[in-house]
Amino acid sequence: MKQELHAMKQGLKAHVNRVRMSLGVGMGYLPDALSTQLMKQHYHLVGKHSAVKACKWLRESILGRRTCYKNTFYGIDSWRCVQCSPVIGCNLCCRFCWRISPEDIGIKWDEMSEPVWDEPELLVEGFLKEQRRIVSGYKGNPKADRKRWEEANRPAHVAISLIGEITMYPFLSELIDKFHRAGMSTFVVTNGTLPEKIENLSTLPTQLYMSLEAPDEETYRKTCRPKIKIAWEGVNRTLELFPSIKTRKVLRLTLVDGLNMLNPEGYAKLILKAEPDYVEPKSFVFVGGSRYNRGLELGNMPKHEEIREFAGKLSKETGYMVSDERADSRVVLLCKDREAEKKRFIQKK
């Protein structure tokens, strides 16, 4: 029995290595332990430093069930959305993050060497190829909505937000541009620590998200555990840049009870500095990476009623209007004004 188990493990290891080699993965940037763990968690690795993964809402929506809150708030078809990232590495190690962090499995920051960056063309082709591979598995499912399945094979939206800090990819403008030229809308999520990267974008996403995870530096360091010394300064510089960025902008507050869900007045000052079109106060979810040894428990997840109450305080302090909510995702949408509320739905091409 032990011999059979050993043979199975060796067979799995060999298979993972073959997949890794075929994708060009694990060549100096991704340590073997990390790429193996990512594939076990159903990440589809692309090139040397990128990945695609199906979120639960892609599955739910293809099966004719619920769509994600971005469908409710902005009209994005969940079944036509590609969730991807051109960078797996990150300069933060947020306690609430559902993604796996290299530190979670004993890999130090300096063991993640800078990759030889893949060209945007390779990534676009790889992302769409892997997305079609993900979707193909639903073809024979009798519960699948046939029309949605067919549309899922023609993605219309890209959420460049799966894992890592997106702005670390040096060809982000070109990547966004190629998706736009293909008729797809884009959401880009940044942690705001690299303002110069955002300032130098020549092509802007359809909607730019920034994660705002604390009302002050002390809370930020406890919550996000930055790996660079000037992270908080970078966040504030990005907030200052926000009003001049000519695209739709969102601040997302991932809130953890007992950690960063405090001082709404402090958050309000930062929101007013940035003047985003939308603000999303949202509960962290106790899944994935957040279950690692980061000191969090299920009880740290705020109830939706608590998120709604916190959103009300932000609304009072900022003048932003409460526009919508999704109880199953524990998130509320605040709009800057009536004009932003009217324009919140993305035009479909």
Automatic annotation (TrEMBL):
Keyword Metal-binding: yes
Catalytic activity: N(1)-methylguanosine(37) in tRNA(Phe) + pyruvate + S-adenosyl-L-methionine = 4-demethylwyosine(37) in tRNA(Phe) + 5'-deoxyadenosine + L-methionine + CO2 + H2O
Main location: cytoplasm
Binding-site list for [4Fe-4S] cluster 2: C90, C94, C97
Pfam families in alphabetical order: Radical_SAM, Wyosine_form
Key words of the record: 4Fe-4S, Cytoplasm, Iron, Iron-sulfur, Lyase, Metal-binding, S-adenosyl-L-methionine, tRNA processing
Record EC number: 4.1.3.44
InterPro entries: Aldolase_TIM, rSAM, rSAM_sf, tRNA_wybutosine-synth, tRNA_wybutosine-synthase, TYW1_archaea
CDD domains cross-referenced by the UniProt entry: Radical_SAM
Gene Ontology terms: cellular component: cytoplasm
The organism's place on the tree of life at top rank: Archaea
GO MF annotation terms: 4 iron, 4 sulfur cluster binding; metal ion binding; tRNA-4-demethylwyosine synthase activity
SUPFAM superfamilies: Radical SAM enzymes (SSF102114)
Subcellular location as annotated: Cytoplasm
Family from the record: Belongs to the TYW1 family.
Subunit: Monomer.
Name of the protein this chain belongs to: S-adenosyl-L-methionine-dependent tRNA 4-demethylwyosine synthase
